[in-house]
Amino acid sequence: MKLFHSIVLTFVSLVILTTSCNNRKTYADYLKDEKKAIDLLISKNNFEILREFPVDSVFGENEFYKDPNTGVYFNIIDLGDTTHRPQWREKIYIRFKGLHYFATDDTIRYSNYQSTFSEELEYFGPVNSTTLSAYSSSTAGWAVPLSYVGHRGKVKLIVPFEMGSTYDQSSYQPTYYEQVEYRFENQW
Predict the structure, then answer these.
(1) How many C-beta atoms surround the C-beta of residue 84 within 10 A?
(2) Whether 142 contacts 70, CB under 8 Å
(3) Alpha carbon of residue 152 to chain centroid
(4) Count of other CB atoms within 10 angstroms of residue 187
(5) Cβ neighbours of residue 149 closer than 8 Å, sequence gap 6 or more
(6) How far are the Cα atoms of 6, 8, 11, 46 from residue 3, in angstroms, in the given order?
(7) What SS3 state is found at 34?
(8) What is the spatial distance between Cα 182 and Cα 164, in angstroms, rounded to a whole number?
(9) For the chain, does the N or the C end have fewer beta carbons within 10 angstroms?
């Protein structure tokens, strides 16, 4: 009888273990969910994704360029002062509004314009496989448009979770920013 109970207990444990493991999402599942959510955001808002970056850097209101190295989509609202480009290791102060976690039921739009302190980003050059780890302490997606805009430049962003903050990465949440404004440390 003891042997029978041991066999049944082992079998039940294996069934529970097997079914609980099957309920977890894989990284590939999160990437598929993210792609669907981004495609839905683009469709709902009638965003047009440009194949080429505009030669004159002028975007229509709903036009976005998808950076091929990062998957970040951006729309330049205002180029800012392009006579001032970010320097290596310069601090960039970030103000944003309309931050939306669009892949969830969260309907809140977040902003840091009323906050005493802005977010900070240390500039390490264009975001690519070499510089990506340098941006790990902030939101790497913020740095993507910095190759195109100057001091006080403004953009709209769609940021995949891999290019987001540590929270975005750990919760697999892509984000949409209605506006991100850049201020360069050396221009104050």
Answers:
(1) 15
(2) no
(3) 21
(4) 15
(5) 76, 78, 79, 80, 82, 155, 182
(6) 5, 9, 12, 65
(7) helix
(8) 17
(9) N
Q: How many residues does the chain have?
A: 188
For residue 16, give the H/E element and its range. helix 2-22
Q: Assign residue 52 a region: left if phi > 0, alpha if psi is -120 to 50, beta otherwise? A: beta
Structure-token pair, residue 37: 């959510």
Distance CA 136, CA 23 (A): 30
Q: Are 127 and 70 in contact (CB under 8 A)?
A: yes
Assessment of whether the complete model's pTM goes beyond 0.90: no
Place of tokens 């902030």: 138
Euclidean distance between CA atoms 101 and 179, whole angstroms: 14
**pLDDT of residue 4 exceeding 50:** no
DSSP summary character for residue 151: B
The pLDDT of 144-163, averaged and rounded, is: 97
Alpha helix ranges (H) inside 23-123: 27-44
